[in-house]
# Entry
Amino acid sequence: MRRTVQFQAPERGAERESRHAETRQPEPLRTEFGFELPRGYVDESGTVHRSGVMRLATARDELVPLRDDRVRENSAYLSVVLISRVVTRIGTVEEIHPGVIEDLFASDLAFLQDFYRRINAEGHTRAAVNCPSCHEEFTVDLAGGRLGES
# Structure
């Protein structure tokens, strides 16, 4: 009778890390992203709404606006219709439609267009920036709070 016994060498740190990395569960898909508008949406009563939520876009979100008559007449209106489909809330306003997006300040619309591009094309809300004083490079999260807050 022949027995075969196998001994394993002790794991090194890197080997142990790679083995544990294989058993980790992948992060769940994040489909909604919070944001803070630079200026804010002003509703009919004069209330300013700054925080909001944008969801990931679907293929339908990008196709449906192409059938919209306003987009056919003016292709620049595409971003207004598209943003209105993926923003689910701005402050306490939960019924987001093209009229709400039209009433945003231009800087807020530009912010949402960039935010849309980041979460749908790049998959994150981080941006690399340089400090104007010391020229050090660092990363900021565009979905974070107001400027100066941590």
User: Anything to note?
Assistant: The chain has a mean pLDDT of 83.
